[in-house]
Each structure stands twice: as structure tokens, then as C-alpha cells.
Amino acid sequence: MKVPFSWLKELVDIDVTAQELEEKLFSCGFEVEELIPLDAGISKVVVGKIVEMEKQEGTHLTKCVVDCGDYGHDIRISTGAANMKLGDCVPAALDGSTLPGGIKIKARKMQGVESNGMLCSGEELGLNDDLFPGSEVYGLLILPEDSVPGTDIAPVVGLDDMFGEDTWEKAESSMQKEACQLALGKAHLTAGAIRYLFGGDLLRQGVATSLGVEQLQIPMFGLYGACSTSGEALALASMCVAAGYGERMLVVTSSHFGSAEKEFRFPLSYANQRPLSAQWTVTGSGAFIVGKNRSHVRITGVTVGKIVDYGLKDSQNMGACMAPAACDTIIRNLEDFERKEEDYDRIITGDLGYVGQSILFDLMREKEYDIKERHMDCGMTIFDQSRQDTHAGGSGCGCAAATLSAYILPAIASGEWKRVLFVPTGALMSTVSYNEGASVPGIAHGIVLEHC
């Protein structure tokens, strides 16, 4: 069984390194089969944004000027790779950095030109496609375009799910804070330009959100809609803008596998077996600016969800608990807007997963609707079922939010999809209600998104 060192530290006070703990266990007669340091030997490797490129005459090399944030905005590094373009974000191993295997990187001349580091591939960082998609591509590892120059590479590529913090809850707060900063930065706004913030998460009293956005000092509405929170927040934010209560609103939500499992199921180190109907909480966050300024995506309609309870009590089968609510919201949206299934390019649910999707199709057919050809579920999309054992798919507030920001909105903005019904779904349970034997009702909010 593989157990992250950070999980052990959640349950036991450990004041030694993982290597020292391995030695202590061995000296007590316990065998540690393998110690796998995910970020072994990586130091001073950061996100670098290529701001200038020029072929180095007479060689196969390209001279790049790289913005590495606080480390320098014009660091000159030569590379033999050819798959990058101007504006790409890539891993930059700076002068004095270390890579896995003890490889030291120093400034040196390459074909007569000074190079102050190295731009890295996924393989050079010890990654593969299971850890970070695109790592096995020949050439440099191309990072998400919204990566922040100068950021330590470990959390960016998933080598540090604690995001530099000492608890899961603080890690989730860090994600929310960074998501908000990225959204504001991409919109060229400061926190002072936002009238209200609508945010929430899965934890008790919304601590991930309250601690994550505290420094922004934006008037805040804390929300709880379980995994439907992104839809609830977008609905309220768009209503406020339409009513004239402010020019711009900020929406944010998140989930973290470690914090959610700790809150709702079992401590991870128990290694309890899960049924095939169970889903994996997504470690992710999404933030959105809703305002009057014209963009390529607009919210043109909202269908606020109702609580729907079929009496199911299995917290390991949330797809079944949420599917009736998704069905109710989708049908009410079609009826209220006098539309047919084919009027939407996609009808996208939040995290029903494979089990919930099947139930949704059955419920829709009973009402003489068929959405099978245009349905998509974020929980089924965000993980690769053929390579990742996530059973019924993904879940969590971050599941729908991350998929919306990284996949759905770009498809609408480009015009690939003209009109989408986005329906984040939530299972309204708590540890108290579950332990008292209460059923798990569902809710789903419908957001109509259109290309413009």
C-alpha cells in the first residue's frame, strides 16, 4: 500500500524527515518496501514564461528570454527543444537548481552563448502523463497558460498537494486564493474593482473560502450548495449584476481530496475499500468574474434548483442521490425557456459520474426526454477512467468549477459551442446527518451560457 507522508503526519506527530522515519521503522523491525519522493531533488525550478525567442545562428538551439517573476523578468536561457512558442509557460531550472537524480544546473555557455539555466521536459522533472498530462511529449513541458511566472514548479505540476501548507484545509484555502488572483489578473482588475464575492466549499462553516479570500477584503457572501456551489454562486452573481447592485462580481469555489475525505468519509490512512459507485473528490478550484463588460461568453438564463430527495442514504453513491435533482432542473429549464434538447450544444452536469449519468438518462426517458447524444458530465470528463482508478468519476465543488474554467468556457468562447446548459449538482449531506441515518437529498442549478 502506498501512503503519502503528509497523511501520516495528519494522524501522528512526526518531527523527522521521511527518510529518517524509514530508518526508524526498519530499526524496529518494520519493512518499508519503497520510499518514493515525488519531488526528489527538485529545487529552484520555477514557472518561466517565454517573452522572447530567437534562433541561435549556426546551431539547433533557440535563445529564449524568460520571465521568472521575482527571480528575474529577463533571464536568458538557450534550449534545443522545438515545441515551444512565444508566450508559453515552461519549467525553468535556474542557475544553482537541482533536478531528480542529483543533477545540478549552472549557468554556462552553450555554443558560445551564455545560458542561465535550463528549460525542462516532463521527463527531466521525473513526471509522466499519469502525474501531469503532457509530461511524456518530446520537448519542453508546456504548462497551463495562466501559470504565474516565478511560482515554484512542485504545486503547479501536482508534486505538492499541500501547496506549501501544513494542513489539507490550508492547502484548499491557498488554492482558492490563487484562483481568485488568477481570475483578477486575467481580467486586469484589482480586488477593489469587485463589488461582491460569492464563494463556498465543502468544509464545515466554509473555512476554506473564508480563510482563502480573507486577504482580498471583498464584501463576501459565503455559500453552501455542496458540489453545486459553482452554479449557485454564478446564479447569484449574475442576478446581482443584472439588478444593478454592482459592475463586477467574483465567484470562487474549491474542493480538496484530502480535506473532503477527512470531513465526510474516513481518514485516508485507513485505506478503506470503496464500492465501485464511489467517486474521487477533485483537488481543484475555479474562480470567475461576472460583470457588464462584454466578453465572448455571457450568462443568458438561470434555473435555480429545488431540493429533491428520493430517500437514498448511501454516501458512497452520490451520483444516484443527485441524478433526480439534475433531471428536475434540466426539465424545468427546457419547459421554462420553451426549448428542446437539441437547442443546446451540450447539457453538462457537475459530478453525477458514470452511475449517476445512467440514472439521469433513465429518469429523463421516463419524462419523454432524451439527452444522451448531447450530455456531458464533469465528473466523467476530468479523470481518465482508462488510466486512473477513480471508480464512478470525480466529485467535489472543484470538479465542476475546474472543468468549467479549463474546458467548457474556452469551447464556448471559441464558438465551438454556441449554447450550453451548465448544471452543477450537489448532495446535501453532512457528517451529522449521515451518522443519524438521514437520507441524502440532491440539488442542481442550471446556468445557460452562450457564445457572443
Characteristic key phrases:
alpha/beta; single chain; 12 helices; globular; 452 residues
Describe the structure.
By secondary structure, the protein is an alpha/beta fold. It is 28% helix and 24% strand. It contains 12 helices and 21 strands. Strands 1, 2, 3, 4, 5 and 8 form a 6-stranded antiparallel beta sheet that branches. A 5-stranded mixed beta sheet has the order 14-21-18-15-16, sandwiched between helices. The longest helix has 19 residues. It starts with a helix and ends with a strand. The mean pLDDT is 90.
Please render the helix and strand layout as text:
Elements: H1 5-11, H2 18-27, E1 43-55, E2 62-67, E3 75-79, E4 89-99, E5 103-105, E6 108-110, E7 113-115, E8 117-119, H3 153-156, H4 168-186, E9 196-200, H5 207-213, E10 220-223, H6 229-242, E11 248-255, H7 257-264, E12 280-281, E13 284-291, E14 297-303, H8 318-336, E15 346-349, H9 353-366, E16 375-377, H10 378-381, E17 394-395, H11 397-413, E18 419-423, E19 425-427, H12 431-435, E20 442-444, E21 446-451
Parallel strand pairs: 9-10, 9-11, 12-17, 15-16, 15-18
Antiparallel strand pairs: 1-2, 1-4, 2-3, 4-5, 4-8, 6-7, 11-13, 14-21, 18-21, 19-20
Helix pairs in contact: 4-5, 8-9
Characterize the main sheet. 6 strands, antiparallel
Briefly note the structural class of the backbone.
alpha/beta
Note poorly predicted spans.
none
Number of DSSP-assigned strands = 21
Number of continuous helical runs? 12
Distance between the termini: 51 Å
Q: How large is the share of residues in beta strands?
A: 15-25%
Overall morphology: globular
Radius of gyration: 23 Å
The overall pLDDT average reads: 90
Helix percent reads: 25-40%
